[in-house]
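[Q] Does anyone have a clean structure-token version of this?
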Amino acid sequence: MKTLLVVDDEPGVRFSLETVFQRQYRVVAVENGEQAVEALRTESPDLAIVDILMPDMSGLDLLPLLKQEDPQLPVIMLSALKDVSKVVDAIQRGAAQYLTKPFDVDELRLAVRMALRNAGRLNELTALESEMTRWYDTSSIVGESRAWRETLAVAQRAAASPDTTIMLYGESGTGKELLARLIHARSPRRNAPMMPIHCAAVPEALMESELFGHEKGSFTGAMERRRGCVELADTGTLFLDEIGEMPAAMQSKLLRFLQDHEFMRVGGSAILHANVRVIAATNRDLKKGVSEGWFREDLFYRLNVVPITIPPLRDRPEDIPLLVNHYVSHFARECRGAMESVHAAAMEILCNYPWPGNIRELRNVIERAIVLNGAARELTPAHLPAELEGGAAGTSAGPSPASFPVSLQQEVRELETRLIRAALIEAGGNLSQAAVLLQTTRRILKYKIDQLGLD
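[A] Here you go.
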């Protein structure tokens, strides 16, 4: 249930607003700005309705304080004055709407509903941008092998049950996150965001904040309130990748959330609720982790409701030609290359290689071939790494330096150039946003741009 914060010094107005909204929302009513700021910190409202004319602190003075605490909080201003300058001032300070007293109840209800809907869309857009949806197109799920069809069949059935927890098992590179996105896209929760947390990539000290969010000032560097992935995924899906790497202390907190869907932000005191479906993934043996003591037994059984094992690429060799053709078409289009077919000899090499890195390794091989040979119309053995011809990595004598078209340094430079340019285009030239997309800092990105001589 959404929470509305009502700020008005008139008891009659507070009572009226509580009566109007109490059946649909949880209403917290206060009489002045000081109480409003405190309520914002403790009650975590989703929207505020604020009177402009109040003693000590006016609504216009309170508005920037509320926005400072929670920049995403929608605020509706009320006033008995029909002063255009006040309206303009309120909108400029961040108000979502301005209504005059005596207000029309239906108009106010509509204003609240629209403001909450717009705020939800903003949260969803932020979530979608932060997870870089364009890099995870579910159309990349390719395969006709029996093993893969059986995996997809289980995933499809599990997707239809929107509250069931799913556990994905598979080696690195088999496409666990891609399958999780497919499950989300085919579920009743598909219109809400899917938020991923890569447990192995988040420092232990920041894991709780990443998961549940934090309040302003809760720790050094917490300059403003931040919603965690659980809150951003409300009504959608929370994807916990590499769950086996989650610290022991966080495992108990995650278990508590899974049991009642309630949580608190770091440094907060308000109990919040999030309705999410959890999909977890791992390349480790969690049963072994239970026996060895590094993974909680109760959490294992809570997550392992519908286990789905993704077969490695070596166990589905008939899917390799389909994947090769898919990635040739995909990267020729993305990298503006001319390649449109695969030579039979090259396909034989690709099909005979055991792919210890699974689909991710195959994808990288095809991408490199097209990036470095953009004018070629056919993928040939000469475009493939020499170690592929030896079967398993390390079984051949190894390529000579002359067999590589470029040096490692040159190849890395070209790849960095392409990725940085793509991120800058995606971010509209904004260095800070591009750095977020590339998971680095603005300073390092600026250094790389100068080093590579980019415009």
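[Q] Thanks! Anything notable?
[A] The first helix runs from residue 11 to 21.
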